[in-house]
Every structure is written in structure tokens, then in C-alpha cells.
Specification:
Length: 384
């Protein structure tokens, strides 16, 4: 979709075509043929693409997704609504205005404006800028958007500067920070003032500048992103934030007194991915009154059962043989025919192992394959 076609899509005629594409029935070719009676091939393709992307966007952005405009890359890169709302709330707590230096189609601008912030955004791509402006208008939100190079702007009039560097190169996703756009050198400069920079969850801890907070965020058990907070927005060194049905919970390095290694107890805890990325597994151990099963494995064990948003809990039913032949026999004796295999710190493919076990029986079960005190263990567990 080019800029001219998108601008046409915003006209009354374009909106009529978009509505017709959304309500059309029949095969894709049949729909295209009917729509081509009143519009060009490019206009029809743009309308049908928006219908498709809006349908996909609802899962990520909620009801807003059905009213917004997208490019395929823009939707893929857009922040999940719950995560964007959390970030916007943190920024709003530290000031009244924000400039998004890489605004794309405006997903974060929407969250910023909703949080009551005076919002501005810039991007190098005129089409993305036009889409971001249209998205704010579609949701009746304020904000200024313009075409500009964010790396050359004076951001001092704004309380907070925000950036989400592109992490894709000509060969696809890149993990080299120098290949980001804007590059890491710009990010380091930005982080000398009150800023927030969205980064990949796999960012090495030793890359985070001194005095900058690194936050890892998960939503519904899946790690979505990491963000670097600087200036007055930085309140700790490492933070894990977990978003779920019950709301939001956060854990920091200040909650981490450390933990020892000990034997497997009655309960096993599997920390959330954001907790693991933040290096706060021992904080979970302290929170449940337990310890690690192994210094290098992200499992916690404790003698008591605790409900915590930072880990999934299991009751350890028994310890099974770790060797495959003996494990197979033990599962057959117990009549287990359906098996969930969780593993951490061991070189095992759950799918391949499940095939080799040739399970028979009516019972379902979960086993955990991991290391405890340096040795392989197989634990029969049940979630609680």
C-alpha cells in the first residue's frame, strides 16, 4: 500500500469500500471481483488487507484493533495493548509529556495519549506517519505526528523520550545492537536523560549502562519485551513485571536476598520467563521460603505451597528413574498414557522422548526432567 492509496482509503469513498470489504461474503476472488466494480485493484487490495490485519489485531490490541490501520510489519512490531498500557502508566508517573522517536503506526502513541500524556511522535516513513495520525484520529485521541529523523531532534522540551529501535536487517531479525535502527550508540546517548527504550528480551545484562533500570515484561506467561529506563524513571537495577488475569505484579533486585541450593522438597516452582530473564529466580525462592534445586537451573523448591504470580507451582508426587528404560517401565506401571514433559537444563527433546516411551494407559501426568545438585532427576508432579 502506498501513501496515496492510504490517503484515499481515509476518504468517504475509501471508507465505503473498507466497510464493503469487511461485510462481503464469498471467496476472496469473488469479493475482489465485486469490489473492483467501483474501485481500482490497488484500492481493493488495500481495503482487503486492512480487513485481514484488523481481524488479526484484535487479539493483540483488543477492540482498538478493529478500528485502527496497519501495515503487516507495523502490526507485527506493535506492542501488546496491556504491555503498552503498563509502560505508558510508568511514563505518566514521571512526567506529563512524551515524544516517541520511532512511532511507526502509532501503537504506543495510543497508549501514551490514553494515559493522559501530551504526546508527539516522529518517524522516517511518511506512510507510517500518516497511519499513526489516522489511528489517533480513529480512536479520538490527541497527539502530533510528523516525518522526522528522531536521532537529530532536540527532545529537551519533553519530560520523557521513548524509542523502539528496529531490530531487523536485510537478512531478518538481528541480535547485534549496532545493527539496530537507531543504533546502540544513539540509545546510549538517549539513556543519559529521562528515557525509555524498548529492547529485545535477550539483551545481555552487562550491556545495560550503569544507573539504568532493565525491566522484563511478560503477559499471560509469555515474555513480550524488555525496556530500559533512565534518569528519574529508573528506580532499581533489574525488574520483572508479570501481567496476568489478576492484574500486574512486579519483582525487583531489592526483593532478592539470594538463596541456597538444597534437595527437592514437596513443592516445585517454575519461575515466569520475565523473572528468569531478569535474573531474579532467587527472589522467587525467598518469596516461597525455599531454595534452588541447582545453582544454574531456574527451578525453585520449597516445603510449602504458595500462590505467587511469579511462578507456576507443582506438588512433587514422587521421584522417578531418570534413565529412559527405567522411566518407561515406571510410567507403564502407573498406567500413564498421556504425558506432559517439562525440561530445563538437560539435553532432551520432549517430543522425541514421548515417542520413544510408547506410552499406554488411561492416566495423564506431568514429569519434570532437570538437574538437582548437578545430577539428572525425573519428577512426577501435578500443578496446584
Amino acid at each position: 500500500m502506498d501513501l496515496e492509496t492510504f490517503r484515499w482509503l481515509l476518504t468517504d469513498e475509501g471508507q465505503g469500500l473498507l466497510a464493503a470489504a469487511a461485510s462481503a461474503e464469498g471467496s476472496e476472488l469473488q469479493v475482489q471481483a465485486r469490489l473492483r466494480e467501483t474501485a481500482t485493484a490497488e484500492q481493493v487490495a488495500a481495503a482487503m488487507t486492512q480487513v485481514e490485519l484488523r481481524s488479526r489485531a484484535v487479539d493483540k490490541l483488543g477492540a482498538d484493533g478493529s478500528r485502527m490501520y496497519f501495515t503487516r510489519d507495523g502490526l507485527e512490531q506493535a506492542t501488546r495493548a496491556s504491555v503498552a498500557a503498563h509502560r505508558a502508566a510508568r511514563i505518566a508517573a514521571g512526567g506529563t509529556s512524551v515524544i516517541d522517536l520511532t512511532c511507526g503506526i502509532g501503537g504506543d502513541l495510543v497508549a501514551f495519549a490514553r494515559a493522559g500524556l501530551t504526546t508527539a511522535g516522529v518517524d522516517l516513513d511518511p506512510l507510517r506517519v500518516e497511519i499513526a495520525r489516522a489511528n489517533l484520529a480513529a480512536l479520538d485521541l490527541g497527539g502530533a505526528v510528523s516525518v522526522a529523523d528522531g536521532t537529530g531532534l532536540d527532545v529537551s522540551p519533553f519530560a520523557t523520550a521513548y524509542a523502539d529501535p528496529a531490530r531487523r536487517g536485510p537478512r531478518g531479525r538481528t541480535f547485534r545492537v549496532d545493527d539496530w535502527a537507531p543504533p546502540w550508540s544513539f540509545v546510549e546517548t538517549l539513556l543519559t536523560r529521562a528515557s525509555c527504550v524498548k529492547v529485545a528480551p535477550g539483551i545481555p545484562h552487562d550491556l545495560v549502562p550503569a544507573g539504568v533500570e532493565a525491566e522484563w515484561v511478560s503477559d499471560s506467561g509469555e515474555v513480550k519485551e524488555a525496556a530500559l529506563w533512565s534518569g528519574r524513571l529508573s528506580t532499581t537495577a533489574r525488574r520483572a513485571t508479570v501481567i496476568g488475569r489478576g492484574g500486574l505484579a512486579t519483582l525487583t533486585d531489592e526483593d532478592d536476598p539470594g538463596a541456597d541450593v538444597g534437595p527437592v522438597a514437596e513443592f516445585l516452582y517454575e519461575p515466569d520467563g520475565a523473572v528468569i530473564r531478569a535474573g531474579l529466580v532467587t527472589a522467587v525462592a525467598a518469596g516461597v521460603g525455599g531454595h534452588l534445586v541447582d545453582r544454574k537451573i531456574a527451578y525453585v523448591t520449597a516445603p510449602g505451597s504458595f500462590r505467587t504470580p511469579f511462578a507456576r507451582g507443582y506438588r512433587v508426587l514422587e521421584r522417578l528413574p531418570y534413565r529412559e528404560k527405567q522411566l518407561k517401565a515406571a510410567l507403564r506401571v502407573r498406567g500413564i498414557g498421556s504425558l506432559t514433559i517439562k525440561k530445563r537444563g538437560v539435553d532432551v527433546s520432549p517430543d522425541e522422548l514421548r515417542t520413544r516411551l510408547t506410552l499406554r494407559g488411561d492416566r495423564t501426568a506431568t514429569i519434570v526432567l532437570t538437574r538437582a545438585a548437578g545430577e539428572g532427576v525425573a519428577l512426577l508432579v501435578e500443578p496446584f
